[in-house]
Write a structure and sequence with these properties.
Layout lengths: L7 H5 L6 H31 L6 E3 L13 E6 L10 E6 L3 E8 L6 H10 L2 H4 L6 E3 L8 E2 L5 H10 L5 E8 L8 H22 L5
Helix pairs in contact: 2-6, 3-5
Length: about 210
């Protein structure tokens, strides 16, 4: 365990005006934390999966030319070349909250088969605690509590529509007192990943 957590100053970065000033602050303050935490969670997840260490990818936002990012993240999983083709874990920040996802975005390989398997075998989803949330579009900040979401409809949309996506996980408010304590914060993040692991493993059944 290291002493890394996220502070009010980290979340305040998303109020900085301008692409380059905001990116400068993200690179200086947030990305080093992603690097440290990604290393920890990658190792712990790999041990649970009985695999080699999972790659860690830190979002660079290199395609942006004008508008500053409203969020930033690191991804754990995929291969050394990237992560969007695969189910992967995300850890990221908006100005208002920290997000912890198992993510299926930007048309991963075998997404129709993965979505169909979740539709047919939803027990791992149904077992998730009530504080979990889902999203069907990673570009939008809004999420839905898992117990209130129309999961079948959302999973069918992910399966049938090219722009369909699926993300499931938990969030912490930027003002959550847990964030003051690095141990509690990291335990919460890792517990979330561990509870999502059965879904991660289920998704990979669709891969040859």
């Amino acid at each position: 365990m290291n002493s890394v957590t996220f502070t009010q100053e980290d979340f305040a970065i998303f109020a900085i005006e301008g692409l380059e000033p905001r990116m400068k602050a993200i690179r200086k303050t947030i990305q080093p934390k992603f690097k440290e935490l990604g290393k920890v969670f990658s190792k712990e997840l790999a041990e649970l999966l009985n695999e080699e260490e999972l790659p860690v990818h830190i979002a660079q936002h290199i395609r942006r030319t004008k508008n500053p990012p409203k969020d930033t993240w690191c991804a754990i999983g995929g291969d050394t070349r990237g992560y969007k083709k695969y189910p992967h874990f995300q850890l990221g920040l908006y100005q208002t909250h920290l997000f912890i996802w198992l993510a299926f975005i930007d048309n991963p390989q075998h997404e129709k088969e993965m979505a169909q398997d979740f539709l047919k075998n939803s027990i791992s989803l149904e077992k998730l605690p009530a504080d979990y949330v889902v999203s069907f579009d990673h570009t939008k900040e809004q999420v839905m509590p898992i117990k209130e979401a129309e999961l079948e409809k959302g999973l069918m949309r992910w399966r049938d529509i090219k722009k369909g996506e699926f993300l499931v996980g938990r969030q912490l408010s930027a003002n959550d007192p847990m964030l003051v304590n690095p141990q509690k914060t990291q335990d919460f993040i890792f517990k979330t990943y561990a509870e999502l692991l059965p879904l991660y493993q289920q998704a990979f059944r669709a891969y040859p």
